[in-house]
Every structure is written in C-alpha cells, then in structure tokens.
Design brief:
The protein is α/β, with parallel strands linked by helices. The protein is built from 15 helices and 13 strands.
C-alpha cells in the first residue's frame, strides 16, 4: 500500500505525513496491490466478524492493529423503505442511515482510521476545519486516543448540536471570521507550519479509507450484490469519492459483479460539482459565498471535487441540485413515512432522489440506496424554527379534546 497523487501519479510511502503532492500540489489517495490483498483475504476470517468498519481491517492502510482507536463505528442499518418508496414510485428503496454512528454521522468511519493512523505515526495533536460533523467526530476520537484536538470552525455557521459535542469532548475550538473554505485554508497552513499537528480533514487520504466501508457494508447487507444506484449528499465531496472507491475495490476483488451509478446531490446555493456535471465541464467553478440551510454541505470550494467528478462520471451517474425548501420537505417526508430523523444535509439525498425519479434518471424497478449522513438531533433548531409549532391550551380536558379534534382534522 502507498499514497498516490490523483493527478500526476507521484507515489509516497504510506507512513509519510503529506497532504498534497509535492510535485503538482494535487490531493492523494491510498492504493493497494490487489493481487496481494486477494491472497491476504483468502487467509482472513473477516467474513465471520460483526458488521463494522474494522470487519474490513484487511482493506485498511494500517500496519499495527493493536493501535486501533474505535468507538464501535459502522454496522449502520440499511432500511428497506417501502412506504417512502411507494410515495416516490420506487419498488426497491433502501436508506443507509449513518446517523447511527457513535457521534451521529458518517464522519466516525473516517476518524477511526485517521486517528488510528495518527497514533501509529506517534502524533500527539490532531486538527481539522469543520462545518460541524467533522469537529464532533474528531474531538471524540481524539479524546478516546488521549490526543490534543484543535478545531477551526466558520463563525456563525455551525449547528449548535455539533458544536456542543466538540466542546464536550474537550477540543480547542477556534471560530474563524469567514466561511468553511477559509477555515480549511487556515488549518492546512497551521499543520504545514507546525509539523507536530496532524491534519484530519478529508484531504487526508486515510479518512477516505474508513468512509469507503459504507460501500462494503451496503454490498454485504444486500447479500454481496451491488445496488443499481447510490444517492449521496455532497459537500466537500470526500464521501461520494470514498463510497465509489469502496465499490470499485470490491469489484476489483471479484466480490461483486457490477458497479452502481453514483448520484451526487448538492444544495442550490452550494453546488459547484452539480453545475460542472450538468454543463459537462471537467472543472468546477467555486462558489464564493455558499448559502444553504443544510450547514453540513455549505461548502463552495470542495477539496475532493476531482475525485467526485471521476466517481460520478466514471459510474455513469449524474448530479442534481435541491432547494432549501425541497430539503426541509424531504426531511419531514423521511421522518413521517419511515421514522428516520436526519439532519437537513442528509435529507438532501431524499430530495435529490425525488427529482431524479421525476426526471427519469432512475428507473422505478432499480435497486436504490440513499445514504443519509447525519442524525436529525445534530441540528434540531431547524425543525423547531420551520416545522409546526406545538399546540398550547389550558389544563382542561375539554380544551385538550377540542384542540386534538382540530389537530386530527388537519392531519
């Protein structure tokens, strides 16, 4: 295993602390010798292990498994959503609910591998820029590993549920006057100036290795079958890239016999990747001031845009944009049809799926998996502000009966 530049192909040792290619400045990915990996799997008992990130330890770029830092992440449910499917006109709809992870989002998959690599490298301080979920996850895993944690967040642009987690886990949180892209720029400079600080944003390729297990689990939960379509919310674009990597690795190892189409969903106010796909461009035009109610995907200059374009185009997929209104309606629809409460960014995948079905991009007979990335309690203020308000009456039975009668008529 080694690190390789996605642009020029320059290779680096797996233990070298590097975030960008020293030759061309592009981002890196972890690559494996699949013939050796195939031989390792023949001797492995991985199939007997419980569904989790570390069930797939043979697929990970870690040398010393005694260093694993885990909070029992992964193994999230793949729900068969028949009621929602009927509403949307789909026969085989599933939701992979990543809000079931320890800190409530898919980020835990990447952090268990990233922080484990940090421990393996002897690092004492870890850092990230975040719109929320990354900060909560890194802070938790740093606490578990006994590492110091620095988090840079954009001022006024983080959901309180996520900020509370980072603070509770003991991270040093610094608010930057600017958006996420500026916070990422600053934390990258910080890690370059201070080599004792290990950066764990999705620019770090070890994060992607953990997140690719979403694809592995989907295949295992579908009895070693690949779905036809996978719909993913897209912000910094690390997750859709990671999931595609997971599917392609299973395919390379003959563990599945076909690959799904990847569908990336972005909010209208932060959609550089979707716009590039729709216009047939090979490059994105960053959004200078991204705006959306879905704070987790409020990113105008996604670091992993090249990987995302390759995943979407290479899979024969597409991308779609959704409005804030469509996101909130999808959040409500998923909660009330399937009992799954997700944050707005997660609901973007449901909103996007609805449009893709209506536009004929997805056949009604296809097997579709929507990835919902974070729990609804990550951002409860949105629901309180935008959904129906509680009824208030005097503590009298007739008053309660009267309002309940009205409420039942309204539903």
């Amino acid at each position: 295993m080694y690190q390789r530049c996605i642009n020029c192909g320059e290779c680096y040792d797996v233990d070298e602390v590097i975030y960008k290619c020293m030759k061309c400045g592009d981002i890196l990915e972890i690559k494996y010798d699949y013939s050796l990996l195939e031989k390792r799997l023949e001797k492995s008992d991985w199939r007997k292990l419980p569904l989790s990130v570390w069930r797939y330890h043979d697929f990970m770029p870690i040398k010393d498994f005694s260093k694993i830092v885990s909070l029992n992440e992964g193994g999230t449910s793949l729900y068969s959503c028949q009621r929602l499917g009927k509403i949307l006109g789909l026969k085989n709809l599933y939701v992979k609910n990543e809000g079931e992870n320890p800190t409530g989002s898919f980020k835990d998959r990447g952090m268990t591998v990233g922080v484990t690599k940090a421990v393996e490298l002897g690092v004492k301080i870890v850092a990230c820029a975040s719109t929320g979920n990354t900060s909560a996850s890194l802070a938790a895993y740093a606490a578990k590993a006994g590492l110091s944690c620095i988090i840079l967040i954009p001022s006024g642009a983080i959901a309180f549920g996520k900020l509370a987690q980072a603070i509770a886990y003991g991270a040093k949180v610094v608010q930057i006057r600017g958006n996420f892209d500026k916070a990422l720029e600053m934390v990258l400079k910080l890690s370059e100036e201070h080599k004792e600080i290990y950066l764990l944003n999705s620019i770090n390729p070890f994060r992607i290795e953990g997140q690719k297990t979403i694809a592995y689990e989907i295949c295992d939960q579908l009895n070693l079958n690949s779905p036809d379509v996978v719909v993913v919310p897209v912000g910094n674009a690390g997750n859709i890239s990671a999931i595609w990597k997971g599917f392609t690795e299973f395919y390379e190892l003959d563990l599945i016999d076909r690959l799904p189409r990847m569908m990336g969903i972005q909010a209208e106010g932060a959609a550089p990747i979707a716009r590039a796909i729709k216009s047939g461009e090979d490059k994105i035009v960053p959004v200078e001031k991204p705006e959306t109610i879905a704070s987790a995907i409020r990113i105008g200059a996604p670091v992993s845009w090249k990987k995302a374009l390759r995943a979407i185009k290479g899979s024969g997929g597409t991308a779609e944009t959704v409005s804030d209104y469509e996101i909130l309606e999808a959040q409500k629809l998923l909660a009330r049809s399937e009992g799954i409460f997700v944050e707005p960014a997660s609901a973007a995948s449901i909103a996007g799926l609805k449009k893709l079905v209506e536009n004929g991009e997805i056949d009604r007979d296809e097997v579709v998996v929507c990835v919902t990335t974070g729990h609804g309690l990550k951002d409860p203020d949105i629901v309180v502000k935008t959904f129906e308000k509680p009824y208030e009456v005097d503590a009298e039975l007739k008053a309660i009966e009267k309002i309940l009668g009205l409420a039942l008529q309204l539903t």
